[in-house]
Amino acid sequence: MMSDQTAVAQVQPVRTEAYLDFLQMLSGVALVMFMWAHMILVASVNLDLGGGRVMNWIAHFFEATYMAQIGGPMIALVMLAHFVLAARKLPFKAREQKEMWRHSVRLNHLDTWLWVIQAVTAFIILIMGCIHMWTVLTDLPITAQKSGARIQGGWWMLFYIFLLPMIELHVGIGAYRIGVKWGWIKRSNRQFFHGLENKITLIFITIGVITLFTFYVLVKPM
Fold first, then answer.
1. Which DSSP letter does residue 184 get?
2. Cα dihedral sign, 187-189-195-199
3. Among 6, 13, 82, 115, whose Cα sits 20 to 30 Å from the Cα of 72?
4. Per-position pLDDT tens, the chain of length 222
């Protein structure tokens, strides 16, 4: 018969994992909301065809209230914490990665491939996202003209063209998988929500491409 001490020892790790999964979910939801809001706010540069008045006003508001100076580092910490929490289930060793790929090919299941895409994009976003945040937050104030000058010069346009789909794929898949994992998306409506996730991802990628075009062509740099 199992002793009370043995039962507690077995239950405790499971309970800890549940708490960590819950924190991972919370940080993931926060980052999804932030990324969608961030994309919409940056896309405000399109409202006056690259004039930058709307975007500059929004940026000034966030900086005057210190939301940019405080919120930026906080988002970076949340992103790092989310990666650490998710890394508990990511394959870092070559043998583990090979085994993951073998199982993915064998199963050939949509949700499995979505997890693979999310795992790959996570590493890319961690590196490139930190580069983007450091570049922006160490060169305040944010203005449309300054952003336009950055994108129009050097390799930044290619940088953002590559980063944009990585973020939107990761965020869209993440929102879908949170719903599946926590039971909000069920087998009966999974196909609908997967289609919705694809549409939302495509919409935000399109908004991002239009915004990059505006910065590259219409915005007059300082």
1. S
2. negative
3. 115
4. 445 555 444 556 667 887 888 888 899 899 999 999 999 999 999 998 878 899 999 999 998 998 888 888 899 999 999 988 888 777 777 776 677 777 777 767 777 788 888 888 998 998 999 999 999 988 888 899 999 999 998 799 999 999 999 999 999 998 888 888 887 888 888 888 888 989 999 999 999 999 999 999 888 876
Q: Which residue has the tokens 């060169």?
A: 139
3-state SS class at 222: coil
- In CATH, the architecture of 4-218 is Up-down Bundle (1.20)
CA 90 – CA 79 distance, rounded (Å)? 16
Token reading at 189? 């409506």
Rounded Cα gap, residues 129 and 143, in angstroms:
19
- Establish whether the linkage from the previous residue to 141 is cis, with ω within 30° of 0: yes
3-state secondary structure 115-163: HHHHHHHHHHHHHHHHHHHHHHHCCCCCCHHHHHHHHHCCCHHHHHHHH
Q: Which of 4, 2, 22, 1 is nearest to 12 (CA)?
A: 4
